[in-house]
Design goal:
The strands form 4 sheets. A 6-stranded parallel β-sheet has the order 8-13-12-11-10-9. A 4-stranded antiparallel β-sheet has the order 5-7-3-14, with helices on one face. Strands 1-2 form a two-stranded antiparallel ribbon. By secondary structure, it is an alpha/beta fold. Helix 10 links the parallel strand 12 and strand 13. It folds into 2 domains: about 140 residues, Quinolinate phosphoribosyl transferase, N-terminal domain (Aldehyde Oxidoreductase, domain 3, Alpha-Beta Complex), CATH 3.90.1170.20; about 150 residues, TIM Barrel (Alpha-Beta Barrel), CATH 3.20.20. The two termini are about 15 Å apart.
Length: about 300
Amino acid sequence: MESPFSFSFVDMEDKVFLQSDDIQRIITAALREDIGDGDHTSNAIIPEHISGSMVCKIKDTGILAGVGFAVEVFRALDSEMICEVLLADGAAVKPGDIAFIVKGKVNALLSAERLALNAMQRMSGIATFTAAAVAELRGTSCILLDTRKTTPMVRLLEKWAVRIGGGQNHRFGLFDMILIKDNHIDFAGGIIPALQAVQTYQEKRGVLLPVEIEARTIEDVLEILAFGTVDRILLDNMEAEMMRECVHLINGKYKTEASGNITLENIRQKAEAGVDYISLGALTHSYKSLDISLKADFNTPV
């Protein structure tokens, strides 16, 4: 079976910054954290040469994510592991579904079990939440984005899960976009000083990154419009009526994004205010993990 990681990870501007090697680094670090100097329980109980199989059972309703990652986790511990994938990433699942059957050395299966499940349960939770938010936006032109509110060191997995759920990725980190937020503005002494500083910085450094700036009021929007030279305006923590007025003032000159205090209950109302994007931190910090299990399988020939 072809590796699921023969891909390039790109953001919504189609900039490539993560390759399959980054996934392997996550797996290596996670297995080192979990196994240390050995899985002594499995090593003590299961003879090294014994082979077997496990079945991945779905016990919840949602969108499946992390299957490709799980496959690579098993292969990292047994390169001859055979994975029969029955439901791929992005599949709508329900209790009783079988995602995959994996066959190989039992010691490797048991040592990989928890990492594979941890990733799948969390990634599926994110994908499920994302799909629900995307469904609320159906019929509008608004695009759903994630944020940097992710778990340290596994941001790639969480942003990948957002993609699987139908959302898009905002900036990956601090390096691929200039996003001027309230604290930057306050420390700089205002919107104009902050924008001037960014303009000078880009000219001196010879870099050309997209620039987004946060606006908290209509007056902020007017000040940004007077200065110009931004790519997107972030309308932060605004009620839908104020947001609609701001979108009218911006009048398509710049892309607009809404963020702050957005829920599944009000996301459509915010989208209907006319913004191009909605960024939702809850996608990666307030989701509910999907219930998934890996069980010994004695019905499948090894």
